[in-house]
Structure formats: C-alpha cells, structure tokens
Amino acid sequence: MHAGDSGAVCTLSEAQPSEWPVNSLIFMEMRRLTSSLSPAGVSAACRLLFPRASPVLSGLVSQQRASFSSNAGGTNLTFRIHRYDPEKGGRPHMQEYTLDTSTCGPMVLDALIAIKDRQDPTLTFRRSCREGICGSCAMNIDGINCLACLTPIQKTHRSTHRSPKIQGGTLGAAFGAIEKSLEAQDHMKGPSTEEYHDHFEKDDDGAPVEIVPLPYLMVLKDLVPDLTNFYTQYKSIQPWLQRKTEPKEGSEILQSIEDRAKLDGLYECILCACCSTSCPSYWWNPQSYLGPAVLMQAFRWISDSRDEFTRERLAQINDTMKLYRCHGIMNCSISCPKGLDPAGAIRKMKKRIEEEFGTDFVKLAAQAARSRSAELAKELKIDSQP
C-alpha cells in the first residue's frame, strides 16, 4: 500500500481471485484488506501469480478437493495395495481393500488414510503435509510415480501397463505436450501434472487401483521405501551456499532479479524421488549415477550467483557415471508432480561443463578408460610402455 491523493491505495486490488485457490488464506486476507478501503482509493498495480505448474494454481489441491467432494457418489472402489512386513517374514504380496469413496476425501491419500483408520491399522505409508509440499507420500499409483495427496481418486487407471486409451493413439501426444510446453517457456518448467494427465482417458474397466512403493528401491514396510541412498547422494553435492569470501558484517549477499530468475524451476524440487525412481539409468546404477533429482539440485547451486564454488561443483559432477548416465529419455520430466524439468536441467549442466572444461562424454570416457587401464597394468605389474 502507498499514499495517494484519495488516501491509501492497495496495490493488489486488481489481482484476479480466479487465479487463487478457493479456500486460500491469501484470498481471504486480500478480500478483508480491500473491503476496508473505499472504491475511490483503490487502484490497479499488480497481480498475485503462482508458478505456472503449481498444483495450487491448477486446482489439484483446494479447488478439486471441493469439486470432487461435492460430486462424489456412493461408489465402491477396490484398492490393490502392496504389503510387506519384514518383522513377520514372508514374501511381499498384494492385498485388496474395498472402500466407499464417498465417505472419504477425493485424493488417493485420503483413501489410504480411510483404509488405515477403518479397515487395517497395520497398513503403513508416509504422509505429512497433504498439500504437495513435503513429498512424503510419493508412491507408484497405477504405474505412475506421483504424490498420493495430489492424485485424485477419480483420475486413476492411467497406467501404461494397463494399455490405457491415449488421445491420438500413441504416447506421442503426451510427449508432444511436453515439448510444446518446454519450447514455450523461457525458464525450465515442465508440463503441469494436469497437462500430462489430460492426455490419458480414464480406464473404466473396473480394475482395482494398484498402489505400490516407488520402484527399484528397497522397501522397509508396505509402501515405505528406503531413501537412505537417495539422501546420501543428495548430501554428496553439498546442497548449501558456499563462499570463498565472507560478506561484510551486517550486510547481505545480494542477488539481482535476473540472477534470481535463473533458479526458477530448480529450487521448487521437494525431493520426493518420483523422477529418480522413474529413470532406468537410476535403476541400473543406483550407487554411482546421482539421478535426476540430485543432479537438478546440483545445477540449482551451480546456477546460484551467490555461490563461489561453481567450478568446483562442476568438476565434482563431471563424471561418466554421476552425470553422463542420463540419456535424456524424459521419464523424470514426465513424472515430476511439481511440473519441473530435471532433464532440461541436466542438459544445461552438460553444456555448462563442456564450456567450462572443453570436454564431453566421449573425451571423459576415453580419459577414464586410459586411467583404468593404467591402474590395471599397475596391479598386474605389466609394463605398459612400448
């Protein structure tokens, strides 16, 4: 707010309420503020905008919760859930539960909570925020890595292993939406969750909703994967600001608007591991390949103008296994529930490394092969000199 000829002027008066979530505290507070001002003293200045791929903006949280709850009918739906208890022994198995979805919330997480509360208290899964912020409830639902709290029950049955009906007849429509979305944006933002899922028609064959843990991870219990290796790799990139010079006492480390914009599409990652566990390279090399999520976070700090260890970070990542196991198949960008583009971040990081060190995968692989050959020759006591 600032002073004007007719009194206080609210700079947020013309923000479009339709772009705010229906039940948002922000919207309620803005209505309270603007209603206390006279019409003559209110003028337009700016609009409140959420990130383009924000689940809040697309309505996956507040708006769809309201609409789905009001439209819910008395439908019994079967959920086929992965069960495994190491304390009891036995092999992992799938167990079915039937739930009246009109008696719970609209999201898959709501159904899981209802099943745990009413039918089977031993069912185990992670959850926390219920709003797509923490990433705790990441799991594979009908063949798609996603967050249970952002996956509507009414939009399940889209898995490729069920041969879903796809508009246009092939996966090309979905990939076309991704390419179009990436080309249309200046910064790295993948398609929103809704944009991707809109290319899949609901499968009404009555099959149960299959829920399993994130793939190719050790399972601790039921739907709880072991993320120890994932977070160890995240720690290895040193995800904090590093400086060679200390700022003056009492002063901040400033950043321009342009430099700050370079972090858009990177800092929003919630480390849910949906992208990494959808990547075949990560399935095959989980101990050596860092995976899309960790690599995107590495690029987040490489792109930060306040960090002074950029070259050191690039050198650490410049490895045939850590970085170059990525083959750009885009599984990570498709599965990201926040609509981010890890594949794009990795592509830009490879380009940055090539510019910085004058090397690429071919040169790096040849160098690694020569180094390994020399090590083997030394171990076998073979004279490698002609």
TrEMBL record:
The 2Fe-2S ferredoxin-type domain, residue ranges: 75-166
Name this polypeptide is given: Succinate dehydrogenase [ubiquinone] iron-sulfur subunit, mitochondrial
Cofactor: [2Fe-2S] cluster; [3Fe-4S] cluster; [4Fe-4S] cluster
Cofactor note: Binds 1 [2Fe-2S] cluster.
Reaction(s) catalysed by this chain's protein: a quinone + succinate = fumarate + a quinol
EC number(s) on file: 1.3.5.1
GO cellular component: mitochondrial inner membrane
Membrane topology label: Peripheral membrane protein
Domain 4Fe-4S ferredoxin-type: 259-289
Alphabetically ordered keywords of this record: 2Fe-2S, 3Fe-4S, 4Fe-4S, Electron transport, Iron, Iron-sulfur, Membrane, Metal-binding, Mitochondrion, Mitochondrion inner membrane, Oxidoreductase, Transport, Tricarboxylic acid cycle
One Pfam match: Fer4_17
Keyword Lipid metabolism in record: no
GO BP, one annotated term: respiratory electron transport chain
Family indicated by similarity: Belongs to the succinate dehydrogenase/fumarate reductase iron-sulfur protein family.
Cell compartment(s), UniProt: Mitochondrion inner membrane
Lineage: Eukaryota, Sar, Alveolata, Apicomplexa, Conoidasida
Biological pathway: Carbohydrate metabolism; tricarboxylic acid cycle; fumarate from succinate (eukaryal route): step 1/1
Single annotated GO MF: 3 iron, 4 sulfur cluster binding
SUPFAM superfamilies: 2Fe-2S ferredoxin-like, alpha-helical ferredoxin
Major location (coarse): mitochondrion
